[in-house]
Amino acid sequence: MRLKSRIIKISLVIFVLGGIAVASVLWQGKSTDGKGLSDLGMLLTRPAFAQDTGVNFLEQEAGISAWMNVGKSIDLVKAKTAFKTIEKDTNEYINGSITLPGYTETEDIHAFVHKDGWVVAYYMKTDPAAKIVDWNNYKIDNKIKGTKLENCIIIVCTAISTATKDIKYYDFRNPDANKMMIMTAKDKKMRIKLPIEYVFYERSYSILSYVNSWGRIKIDEKPIGASVAAGGGNVYYIYSSLSPDQIPPDVFHTVSLELVYGAVVLIYRES
Length: 271
Prior knowledge:
about 270 residues
């Protein structure tokens, strides 16, 4: 089954404050056919593999995910070469973890590969959606170029000698959510206003320090979570959920990024 990505514009109100804006609200997927592009957000689409394969453990353990169908049968023996660990190994599918180049073990991604062509990359349901932000690529030119989940799918497809195409996203924790938005910037301020007519299921953030100093994220001048620092060649990431009280809808909020790369990720339903 060939699935097509769609282009969508979201009416969230976003401004970047102070100097030349380096914030990015452009989602640029890695689909080789170019159809993975979107102006501000990405549709969340429920995959059919659960119904097609009878696999249901993902419903219990998976959170935010990226998925695709390669359009042909998958040789599971070849697919296994992409995995660091195998947790489930059957004649129908394999499930385990995959290491991303340039990232520590804490960023390992779980993957599900079915012989009927399904490839799913996901973080666990306890992980905030903002964990998917791929800072290693963003740091090159301050643009979103996909996510760590897409990178995982590329690793699997390389192992089975198949090109990536039509990568889609889905949040297993929030089946009614139909949109995801990623807003990123470096050492800037963003003003965000969430439409009250949307239903927001998750607000989360990710920050990465880029200098030998302490950096942090603030919302409406209130520090959020712990500060983060980089030094001695080490890179530190922080990601966490935000409560509805920290970014309530229908009000302008200022997100301040001080000496950090930062991202706010929203999972929501646009009626």
